[in-house]
Write a structure and sequence with these properties.
alpha/beta; 120 residues; globular
Amino acid sequence: MPLSGRKILIAEDEPDQLHFIKTVLEDNGATVLVANNGTEALSLVRSELPHAMTLDINMPGMDVMELLGELKGDKTLNGLKICIVSGRPELRLVLRDRHLNANGYLDKPFTEDDLVTTLK
């Protein structure tokens, strides 16, 4: 299984999208953690130290800019692979301009293969 032994956090507030991502990751061997808002995601990342995370760009609570800044500024999280999930591809430029680059981007809708390949 391509994601066997990997712990992945899903930060997603849309139930259907969350179910899809969670099912795909678990079917590919990952241990999955779930956060429904940015504040919860930051807390789980720091306490559980996942290998990777998917981060919906439109989350309640802490916005994606603030969350990425916190994640990138925490030296203990240097190995964390971050994949931004968005229905608005133009926001990549905003993140890049603010030096908040992620390791990967998935534009909705995306396939199971896209998700697994991005998080390997």
